[in-house]
Amino acid sequence: MADILDLILKKKPDWIHLLDEEGRTPLHWAACIGYLEGVRFLLGRNASIATERDKNGLFPIHVASAKGHVHLIQELLQYWPNSRELLNHNGQNILHVAATTGELNVVNYILKTPGLESLINDTDKDGNTPIYLNASIATERDKNGLFPIHVASTKGHVHLIQELLQYWPNSRELLNHNGQNILHVAATTGELNVVNYILKTPGLESLINDTDKDGNTPLHLATMHWHAKLVSAFTWDKKVDLTLINSEGLTALDIAECSIGNTFTFRQRLTLIPLRAAGVPRNPSANTRRQFSTRLEAQKTDICKDKVNTLLLVSTVVATVTFAAGFSIPGGYNSSGEDSGTATLITHKFFHVFIFCDTIAMYTSVVVAVTLIWAQLGDVHLVLIALKTASPLLGVALATMSLAFLAAVYLVVSTLNWLANVIMIMGLVFLVALIARYFFLWFPMSSSCLILRYVSYYPFCLLVLVAGSGELVV
């Protein structure tokens, strides 16, 4: 077909602008019948024809919208990316046209496409929005069983949800083939802004604890897909029933624990934190719970053994380094006089910082090493207690050792002010980074104590931000 078009236009090149009785160009007709190859050929010859109207004021893209040809809309938008300028004589955009003709696939495409979703709020010359022209389109499912409002939920378009709810306020009736409402869909895809909007909007409370065909609430689904920030939002909202179980008899915490494999990813650990902190119960009668407990006990021995060995090695290194630093002090020793054998910089305030920090690091690392020796007795509970005690102490040892090093280096370069100041700033920046990272390792974010929950909320949000969507195995 393209060969025929090529042959015709070689002989009659001006026919590319040929109009029929309705003022339609060949591009209008190619768009009407969904002929993608012809559209590409014609645009390749003369891209300006994409901006020609027929007698009804329709661009070719309006014709494609009216006929439901999504693939042609995608092609034509490449030549006129500002879709808000594509208006017919009635001031209607491509979404107005698609809604009027009932082309749900075009409506869903526009709702899902970044940069096009704003078309739903545009009004024509009569002040009508696209959905107002055909409100029934808001109640039609696509081939996947999704209403337009479900599509908007999967993409996080809150303003579209607000618009669509005006035409079907009973949101509990808007269910896909799995019996899921818009909050279920948003929880599955991880759209936090939609979840927060529904949790805060009066009249939508009925969606919060609704169950789908499998008995899963939005909290269950957010947990299944490891959306830690969403799980946190649900657990902080008092309207969410944390005790609900699904058709398999599992609470949200049961689902999280039973879905974890032999290795914990960072996202899985983050998802468990708000569930445990909020006191989400376990169903003691669930078989999967017993399976998880058995698997967890088997994993604990190996995991704890590795942790003990690692911490013991680090504490030994810290003890060795700080012990050696105690005898190779900055500035050396006096070799004569009454002060023979004493430090030459003993009156300097940064020398005092060095001595204090080096001593603290030395003794805390020794205490850590002795504590971890107890962990070698083989009792899992004793190992956990030893690790819980040793971890923060080792953090103190590492921080004070770093501070001792900073003080020592500052001492030996203190006569050159600019260098000493640069060293001080660098050292403090890295020290703060070290303390912050170690803080996240041992701070009890899973504590159900309300004060600790409030304190740990922002560090938790920071960890979620760092984790992103990656699958970091830890």
From TrEMBL:
Coiled coil: none annotated. Its main location: membrane. It is a multi-pass membrane protein. ANK repeats lie at residues 22-54, 56-78, 90-112, 144-166, 178-200. InterPro entries: Ankyrin_rpt, Ankyrin_rpt-contain_sf, PGG_dom. It comes from the Eukaryota. It is found in: Membrane. The chain crosses the membrane at residues 310-330, 350-375, 382-412, 418-443, 455-473. GO terms for cellular component: plasma membrane. Residues 304-412 form the PGG domain. The keyword Flavoprotein does not apply. Pfam families: Ank (PF00023), Ank_2 (PF12796), PGG (PF13962). Keywords: ANK repeat, Membrane, Repeat, Transmembrane, Transmembrane helix. This is Protein accelerated cell death 6. It comes from Quercus suber (Cork oak). The gene is ACD6_20.
